[in-house]
Write a structure and sequence with these properties.
Layout (H helix, E strand, L loop, with lengths): L1 H36 L3 H22 L2 H17 L12 H17 L2 E2 L6 E12 L4 E4 L2 E2 L6 E3 L6 E4 L4 E2 L6 E5 H7 L8 H14 L4 E5 L23 E4 L1 H7 L6 E2 L1 E5 L1 E15 L5 E8 L22 H20 L5 E8 L7 H8 L7 E7 L11 E4 L7 H6 L7 E4 L8 H5 L5 E5 L18 H17 L28 E3 L8 E6 L4 H5 L6 E5 L2 E2 L3 H8 L7 E8 L2 E8 L1
Parallel strand pairs: 8-9, 9-10, 14-15, 14-16, 16-19, 17-18
Antiparallel strand pairs: 1-13, 2-13, 3-4, 3-12, 5-10, 6-12, 7-11, 13-15, 17-19, 20-21, 21-22, 22-23, 22-24, 24-25
Helix pairs in contact: 1-2, 3-8, 3-12, 4-8, 8-12
Length: about 575
C-alpha cells in the first residue's frame, strides 16, 4: 500500500512536471521563431540572450546557495575524475591511482576517519592471466602483423622462436604448416560429436611428428570456428606454437597466386598481475549498526581489457560510469559528516575492479577492513544522466520489508522507477549475495555507455544533486528503523547496457577464472530456470559460439533474437549437458 500511495504521488508530480515542461518548451519554440523572423541584428541578439539566460534565471529562483554549491562541487569532481589526465581510470593503472589519491584527499580534508588497510586504501590483486610478452612478434614477408587484430596465438599454444630461411609452401613444410579450418569444419558437418579443440590438439601432434616448428590456422569459409584467446586457460600447452589469423589478415597478407612465404616469429607468454585499490572511510557515531554507501571508481582506460562497446584507441573517461557515482558519495559523506543521523555509523566504500566483474566489492567482503555490524548498503552507479525519459531507477526495494515504507515517506520531485531485485551487474549485488538489504540508484543506460563519448559535458549536474539529496533523505528516514530485515528477491539481470534482445536469465559469477561462464543462479521464471540450470553450472557453448568468459557470453547473446532456436552446452560437475533451447 505504501508503494501504491507513492505511485499516486509520483503520478501527480509527473503530470505537473509535464505541464511545466510543456509551457517552457512552448516558450522556447516561440522565442526561436521570433529570432528567425526578427528583421534586425539587435533584435536577434536580444531574443537570443533571453533564450540562453531563461533556464538560468529559472534555476536561480529555485536553487538555494547550498544547492548551487553542491552542483558546483559535483562538476568539479567529475571534471577531474573524467579528465584525460586520468586516462579512463582502468583498475590498477596510474590513472586509477590518481583517482584514489583525489578521493583520499577529499576525506582527509573533511576529517573523516580512514578505514582501509593502509590508511584509506585497500590494495588487492587482479589476475590478468596469460598474455604475450612484449618481445613476441610475427612477421610475414618482412611485414609485422598486429596482435589481436591480425593474429592471435591459441591460449594453449606452445612457445618459441621460429623462422624460415628459405621460401616455404603454403600447404605443407617441414618448418611451418598452414591449415584452413573451414575445410575441417565442412568435413565434420555430419559429425555431432566433432570437437574442434581436440582436433587441433591431435593435428598439432601430427604435424609436429612430421617436423613442423609451428602451425598456422585460418578460415576462408563461412563455418564458425570461434577461435578465441582464453587468458585463464589451464589446458596443457601444445608442443609447438599454434597461431590463428583473422579473416582480414588472411586477405591482406596471403594470396592464392603466391605459394611461398618467409616467416620470422617469436611466441612467448607470461602470467601477469596488477594491483587495484579500494578506498574506505568511516563516520563513527558509536552506533550498533553501520550503513554502507558505495560506488565504483574505475572505468575502462584505453580498452585494454576489451570491455568497451566501441572499437578505437581513445580514452574511455567514464563521466557517468562512474565518476558520477564517485562524486555523489563524496558529497553524501560531506553531508553526513556535517550532521548525520546518529543511530547508524557510515562506511564509505569506493570500489575498483567493478568493470572487470565486481572484483573490488567481492574482495572487500572477503577481506573486510571493518568488522562491525552492517545494516544495509546503497550503491550509486551511473547517476549522472537523469531526465524524464530515463527517470531514476531505485533497485532493491524488495530486499527488506522496510524499504516500501521508507521510500513512501521520502518525497522527491524526481521521476522514479522501482525495481525489487537485489541482484544486478554492479557492486550492490556483492552485498545482496551476503544477505544484506540494498538499494541501487541508476539513471539508465544511453548510447555513450562504455564508449569514449561518456564525457563530463553530458552530465545533468542539477539532476545528480537532486539524487544526492534524495539518498540523503532516505538515509535520514531509515535512522529510526533499526537494523533492517533481509528478503531474497527475484533475480534480475537488469544491467547498464541495452544491446541485447534475448537473455538466458542467469547471474554470471564474475570472479570465476576458469574456461566458460560459471553461474551463481537462475532468474525465477526465466529461460534458464525452465531449462533446469542451477548455481555452479558452467556454460560452455551457445550455438556455434564457445563461451570462454563473460565477455564472450555477452557477445554470443548479441547474435540471437527472440524466437531463435539453438543449442546450449554446459557442465554440471563432471557431466556435460546439451540442450535444445528457444529464446
Amino acid at each position: 500500500m505504501a508503494l501504491l500511495q507513492l505511485g499516486y504521488k509520483n503520478a501527480i508530480r509527473s503530470s505537473l512536471t509535464f505541464l511545466i515542461r510543456y509551457l517552457i518548451n512552448t516558450f522556447y519554440f516561440l522565442a526561436a521563431l521570433l529570432i528567425f523572423v526578427a528583421q534586425t541584428d539587435i533584435m536577434r541578439k536580444i531574443l537570443g540572450l533571453v533564450l540562453i539566460l531563461l533556464p538560468f534565471i529559472g534555476i536561480a529562483q529555485k536553487l538555494t546557495k547550498a544547492d548551487k554549491l553542491l552542483i558546483q562541487n559535483i562538476q568539479n569532481h567529475i571534471n577531474y575524475l573524467a579528465s584525460d589526465e586520468l586516462e579512463g581510470r582502468r583498475a590498477g593503472s596510474v590513472g586509477e591511482q590518481k583517482a584514489v589519491n583525489y578521493i583520499v584527499a577529499q576525506y582527509q580534508a573533511l576529517g573523516i576517519q580512514p578505514m582501509g588497510v593502509d590508511g584509506y586504501i585497500q590494495a588487492f590483486p587482479i589476475d590478468e592471466g596469460k598474455r604475450l610478452t612484449s618481445g613476441s612478434f610475427l612477421n610475414i614477408n618482412g611485414e609485422a602483423l598486429v596482435y589481436d587484430k591480425e593474429f592471435i596465438p591459441l591460449s594453449n599454444s606452445g612457445s618459441g622462436k621460429f623462422s624460415s630461411n628459405a621460401a616455404i609452401t603454403l600447404n605443407e613444410s617441414k618448418q611451418v604448416w598452414f591449415k584452413d579450418l573451414n575445410e575441417v569444419l565442412d568435413a565434420a558437418v555430419t559429425n555431432p560429436h566433432f570437437d574442434l579443440n581436440q582436433w587441433i590438439i591431435d593435428f598439432t601432434k601430427e604435424v609436429k611428428a612430421k617436423g613442423a616448428s609451428a602451425l598456422f590456422l585460418y578460415n576462408k569459409g563461412t563455418f564458425v570456428d570461434n577461435i578465441q584467446f582464453n587468458k585463464f586457460d589451464t589446458a596443457t600447452s601444445l608442443s609447438i606454437p599454434v597461431v590463428y589469423f583473422t579473416r582480414n589478415a588472411w586477405l591482406k597478407h596471403f594470396n592464392d597466386d603466391i605459394d611461398t612465404y618467409k616467416i620470422n616469429a617469436n611466441i612467448e607468454f607470461e602470467h601477469a598481475t596488477r594491483t587495484a585499490h579500494n578506498v574506505a572511510a568511516f563516520i563513527d557515531n558509536k552506533a550498533a549498526n553501520t550503513v554502507v554507501i558505495g560506488a565504483h571508481l574505475d572505468h575502462l582506460g584505453y580498452n585494454e581489457d576489451r570491455n568497451a562497446l566501441d572499437n578505437n584507441n581513445a580514452i574511455r573517461n567514464g563521466a557517468d560510469d562512474n565518476a558520477s557515482g564517485t562524486s555523489a558519495i563524496i558529497e553524501l559523506a560531506k553531508l553526513l559528516k556535517k550532521k548525520s543521523p546518529k543511530n547508524n555509523n557510515y562506511l564509505i566504500l569506493h570500489f575498483s575492479g567493478e568493470e572487470l566483474g565486481l572484483f573490488g566489492s567481492k574482495y572487500w567482503l572477503e577481506h573486510p577492513t571493518y568488522k562491525g555490524n552492517l545494516n544495509y548498503m546503497i550503491n550509486l552507479d551511473m547517476v549522472g544522466r537523469y531526465d524524464t525519459a530515463r527517470k531514476l531507477t531505485v533497485g532493491g526495494y524488495g530486499t527488506s520489508t522496510k524499504w516500501a515504507e521508507v521510500l513512501a515517506k521520502t518525497p522527491t520531485s524526481l521521476l522514479t522507477h522501482y525495481d525489487s531485485a537485489g541482484a544486478g551487474p554492479s557492486d550492490h549485488a556483492s552485498f545482496y549475495r551476503k544477505d544484506m538489504p540494498v538499494l541501487f540508484m541508476f539513471t539508465g543506460s544511453h548510447s555513450d555507455y562504455h564508449k569514449a563519448t561518456d564525457d563530463w559535458d553530458k552530465i545533468n549536474y542539477a539532476g545528480e544533486a537532486s539524487i544526492i539529496q534524495y539518498v540523503h533523505n532516505i538515509i535520514k528516514n531509515t535512522d529510526a528503523a533499526g537494523k533492517l530485515d533481509f528478503l531474497k528477491t527475484r533475480e534480475n539481470s537488469m544491467g547498464k547496457s541495452n544491446k541485447f534482445t534475448v537473455s538466458l536469465g542467469v547471474m554470471p559469477d564474475y570472479a570465476f577464472t576458469g574456461t566458460g561462464v560459471r553461474i551463481e543462479g537462475a532468474t525465477p521464471g526465466k529461460l534458464a530456470e525452465r531449462l533446469g540450470l542451477k548455481g555452479s553450472d558452467i556454460l560452455l557453448q551457445l550455438g556455434d559460439y564457445k563461451l570462454v568468459d563473460v565477455m564472450s557470453y555477452m557477445t554470443a547473446l548479441s547474435k540471437f533474437k527472440k524466437g531463435d532456436k539453438t543449442t546450449l552446452i554446459y557442465n554440471r560437475g563432471a557431466d556435460e549437458v546439451k540442450l535444445d533451447i528457444e529464446f
